[in-house]
Amino acid sequence: MPSCSRSGLVSVKVGDNAAAAPLVLSLLGKDTVILSMQNGVDTAAQLSELTGCEVLPSALYIAVDRVEPGHVVHRGGHHIMLGSGKGSRLAAAALNRAAPLKAEISQDIPSVLWEKLTVNCVYNALSAITLMPYAAFGETDGAGAVIQMVLEECRVVAQACGVTLPADMTQRLHQIIQHMPTQKSSAAQDVMKGRATEIEFINGYIVRKAGEYGIAVPVNFTLLVIIRMIEKRLAQEKLV
Amino acid sequence: MPSCSRSGLVSVKVGDNAAAAPLVLSLLGKDTVILSMQNGVDTAAQLSELTGCEVLPSALYIAVDRVEPGHVVHRGGHHIMLGSGKGSRLAAAALNRAAPLKAEISQDIPSVLWEKLTVNCVYNALSAITLMPYAAFGETDGAGAVIQMVLEECRVVAQACGVTLPADMTQRLHQIIQHMPTQKSSAAQDVMKGRATEIEFINGYIVRKAGEYGIAVPVNFTLLVIIRMIEKRLAQEKLV
């Protein structure tokens, strides 16, 4: 974002927030609206704590792939949900001017963020581990039952955090397979490129919150640990 | 095994038993002892049903790697436990003449086979999914807890099947990490070479038995489904 701009979009990987915070602060004008365009349900709060400023949360329904530095390919989707708050109308209007984006303000952004977190807990992790596109989830014996187990664990943790996931969440998850059969998750792309994933803020967040509330989440925990091991292998391969 | 030999060792992958049975039958002499040197707790029974002959079960504690057809590298171990039954003394004596093997007859082969199955449920699956050697299990945050979950699920299913796993099974599992830190499981080697694994007879067996007894085994089930998806990818890559 240019110096003293009226709105700033933060879209670094969640794990880079602490490193990015000084840069964000150096670019703030008097009334700059900071928008977190990141995965996770507490990312905006985290960024707010790091910068001391109000940060608007958002959920993006846009599939892109960074094929090389400076070259991003748009795979589909153009929808953005913003939290309501100071500057959200200004930010939504600015985003809507940037066609073909479609930004809307949600009066219940926690539910929106939890629903997206649950989608990520299912597809990011399993796609990153198996390196298979979403179609494979519809074609593999037992995959539907694993998806359901991840979902039910997320549902219980969300409820403990005060958010009720939609009753038709199973259908919503299966629609993703139908709408994007050839897509691999951003986490799968991270693994294929030897980069660290955001797993600690996806399934890792569920595991931490479950721990706080004494809830068992064996499947999310297993997926988290498997990706930690895969990241360890990627880091070792990079050193060779 | 040569025609009309006194003992025959069957060591094909469990999934190939049906295909191997006619060959086994064609090689049998009047008193040939058939020994199943395979993973799984019901493999000998399965082979017995396919051939109509008595088959001795056994558990091998020998790490080998088939680097190419006809070239097998011995990585460690020389211990074989045989079930007791008709011909087991003969078979043990024959194996012990083939130094440096050390064959013993167990009076409780079901417990021996279940303990080995449990080891395989933990390490075969996780090593095949992550392609990491056993040392990584000791070094990754949370891996010990995942190992424990797989173990506890196996323990409950074993108990339902009438077998009590050793009380110090956790220690036995951790000793494997210390004794073979650089080893990758046979299933990991299968995945790296694009071959199908024996997962349906390892974690898959636990899942089927758990289903019969109405026991929840979410972690074994998740590992099974993940490897099914990885095998699907390997099969697709072979076609390309």
TrEMBL record, chains A, B:
Keywords in alphabetical order: NADP, Oxidoreductase, Pantothenate biosynthesis
Pathway in which the depicted protein is active: Cofactor biosynthesis; (R)-pantothenate biosynthesis; (R)-pantoate from 3-methyl-2-oxobutanoate: step 2/2
Molecular function terms, GO-annotated: 2-dehydropantoate 2-reductase activity
UniProt xrefs under InterPro entries: 6-PGluconate_DH-like_C_sf (IPR008927), 6PGD_dom2 (IPR013328), ApbA (IPR003710), Ketopantoate_reductase (IPR050838), KPA_reductase (IPR013752), KPR_N (IPR013332)
Keyword field contains Oxidoreductase: yes
Every Ketopantoate reductase N-terminal domain range: 9-85
SUPFAM superfamilies: 6-phosphogluconate dehydrogenase C-terminal domain-like
Keyword Hydrolase in record: no
EC number: 1.1.1.169
Record family assignment: Belongs to the ketopantoate reductase family.
UniProt name for this protein: 2-dehydropantoate 2-reductase
Organism, as annotated: Acetobacter thailandicus
